[in-house]
Amino acid sequence: MKYVLENIESQFEMFQILNEDGKIVNEDDMPDLSDEELKELMRRMVYTRILDQRSIALNRQGRLGFYAPTAGQEASQLGSQFALEQEDFILPGYRDVPQLIWQGLPLYQAFLFSKGHFHGNQYPENLHALSPQIIIGAQYVQAAGVALGIKKRGKKNVAITYTGDGGTSQGDFYEGINFAGAYKAPAIFVVQNNRFAISVPVEKQSNAKTLAQKSVAAGIEGIQVDGMDVLAVYAATKSARDRAVNGDGPTLIETLTYRFGPHTMSGDDPTRYRTEELDNEWAKKDPLVRFRKFLEDKKLWSEEDENKVIDEAKEDIKQAIKKAEEQPKQKVTDLISNMYEELPSNLQEQMEIYKEKESK
Amino acid sequence: MAQMTMIQAITDAMRTELKNDENVLVFGEDVGQNGGVFRATEGLQDEFGEDRVFDTPLAESGIGGLAIGLALQGYRPVPEIQFFGFVYEVMDSINGQMARLRYRSGGHHTAPITIRAPFGGGVHTPELHADSLEGLIAQQPGIKVVIPSTPYEAKGLLISAIRDNDPVVFLEHMKLYRSFRGEVPEEGYTVELGKADVKREGKDVTLVSYGAMVHASLKAAEELEKDGIDAEVIDLRTVSPIDYETIIKSVKKTNRVVVVQEAQRQAGVAANVVAEIQEQAILHLEAPVLRVTAPDTVYAFSDAEEVWLPNHRDIVEKVNTVINF
């Protein structure tokens, strides 16, 4: 009799390129990115951090609705998105708005999504994505379907989907990775393990030592990545993408990360379940700090560059929130008209009632 | 014209649409070489290849998600849920996800998906196979629920469902699969969704029904005729949305109504029909609108199934009550 769990678990080592001091610890896997691309990655992370800060403020002012903070997870979110092509398809979770924005979602529409207006989900033609999924894990089974469709169409693209550590406990997580594996479909499954599913720590979520090892049961590749290291996340996603489009099947990527803020802005208080020590420990791993050091050492980034991005972000946000606030209010008649291609008689009648109500 | 059973007509509808539109995909548990546990997809994989007709891993939520994803790539998925009693495993994909796809994207995405599933009782299955769960889906806006009662309609309605650009749950009563044959044209044709059919014209009482209960209602109408009662039988064919126009027109003629469903009495389609009739036509009624349903227990163990399921005698009894009111 032979048990193999320990052997398997020990195989999953965290993949890292930049350490906390911004030094390259893994020259072999250093991705082939130009100086411009490296600077662009930094620009996007700084921009997204500002967007997060402003979104929290706008939420507190009552100018935004539902918002799930992103600070701390920039490397996981933007490093993976940076490895995509425009025709790739994103199936995000509710915290994954930044990936949509950098894939082409206008900022004012991201704000409209937050405000609960469906124009926020009417995506431009060049953005191939679903709006953020609310049901934990549902996007994983859908990603398997999108990936199978991409394969059947013979396209050289991938479906990429995101969930958190809690999401890996859902049945849909297992069904999704298993379906994609069975069809060798070009899917990338990202688990942003930020250590807490709202308040439940990952240690209570599963007895698995890593979440990446869940790939083994589905017979697909899996890798655990330092989710605070944007170069490692980029390199792992790029490799998964290359394998997927070459017909080598899906990959599960676990990124070890941390959300610095609360679960959402709807009353969550992280001090109820996280210690200050843990917060401080993870603050040292801040993806922006680490990458900034790396770029400064290469003379690719300065305070001036940083301030320029901050100003740019603030100005964009100001314009976008203005545009979002100018959007005509969502009408019940809009909702009715988007239920079916052709309205059945019950909705035709209700349409008349609400047209009348809304004309007053 | 060919004589077909309902299941042959269903296979024929899928064959017609697999030929007609290369985006149509048929998949589910055992639908490939095995042809489905009821043989609804018999021969389709051999004819159209594994790329178009394929087996899935054994997970209903996965099947639902797969259908949504394929729809997002421009396909017209026709997944099979092996028994509709397993629908709870795929409820989020159906009611939570595909029914909302058009709505939540403001019309940017659509879900032209037809979920086929056997349902209904009377064939002595193990538990959790035979429930009439159409009401669960009928409560969800954004998705249609279609239930044929004859081979001719099964083919025409299924073709309409597959061509529809919104999701449809297409429920096939297990007892009707092979219980009789009917004429079915060989060419493709459609029967409009959302339209009821008057299966028998009458002037004294209206029986509103769907699925296997249409046949129980027709049998009851024959019995009633012997007593001089002329019953009209309406087959809803689509239980969401319901064709109230046809019902109300009949009610205004007969002034008496019995609504018949195989599902339990609580909530459900019949309750909705009754409510709508009293809202739209109360002054045309000579008696309360009554229902014939199964009792409000969990679906019967097969040993008690025959008594549990409503039958033509129950219908005759209720009709006599509304006639003598």
Describe it.
The complex is a heterodimer of chains A (360) and B (325). Chain A has 360 residues and is an alpha/beta fold. Chain A has helices at residues 5-11, 35-60, 74-82, 97-103, 107-115, 138-153, 171-182, 202-205, 214-218, 230-245, 276-283, 287-297, 303-326, 332-337, 345-359, and strands at 89-91, 159-164, 187-193, 196-197, 200-201, 221-226, 251-256. Chain A has a 5-stranded parallel sheet with strand order 1-2-3-7-6, with helices on both faces. In chain A, helix 2 (35-60) runs antiparallel to helix 12 (287-297), helix 3 runs parallel beside helix 4 and helix 3 (74-82) packs parallel to helix 10 (230-245). The mean pLDDT of chain A is 97. Chain B is of the alpha/beta class. Chain B has 12 helices and 14 strands. Chain B has helices at 6-20, 44-48, 60-72, 91-97, 101-104, 134-138, 151-163, 213-226, 244-254, 268-281, 305-308, 312-323; strands at 2-5, 24-28, 53-55, 76-80, 114-119, 144-146, 168-173, 181-184, 197-200, 205-209, 231-235, 238-240, 257-264, 290-294. The chains are: A alpha/beta (360), B alpha/beta (325). Chain A binds chain B through residues 89, 118-119, 121-123, 130-131, 135, 138, 140-150, 152-153, 159, 171-172, 175-176, 178-179, 182, 334-335, 338-341, 344-347, and chain B through 51, 56-57, 59, 61-62, 64-75, 92-93, 96-97, 102-110, 141-142, 164-166, 194, 241-245.
What would the principal axes of the Cα set say about the shape of chain B?
globular
Low-confidence stretches of chain B: none
Assembly type of the shown chains? heterodimer
| Structural class category of chain A | alpha/beta
Number of helices of chain A: 15
SSE string of chain B, helices as H and strands as E: EHEHEHEHHEHEHEEEEHEEHEHEHH
As laid out across the biggest beta sheet of chain B, the strand order is 9-11-10-13-14
End-to-end separation of chain B in angstroms reads: 45 Å
The chain pair with the largest interface is: A-B, 41 and 42 residues
- Overall mean pLDDT of chain B stands at 97
Q: How big a fraction of the residues of chain B is strand? A: 15-25%
Number of strands of chain B: 14
Low-confidence stretches of chain A: none
Radius of gyration of chain B: 19 Å
* Ends distance of chain A: 77 Å
Reported for the largest beta sheet of chain B, the result is: 5 strands, mixed
Strand order of the largest sheet of chain A: 1-2-3-7-6
What Rg of chain A do the Cα atoms give? 21 Å
Helix content of chain A: 40-55%
**Helix content, binned percent of chain B:** 25-40%
- Please tally the β strands of chain A and state the result: 7
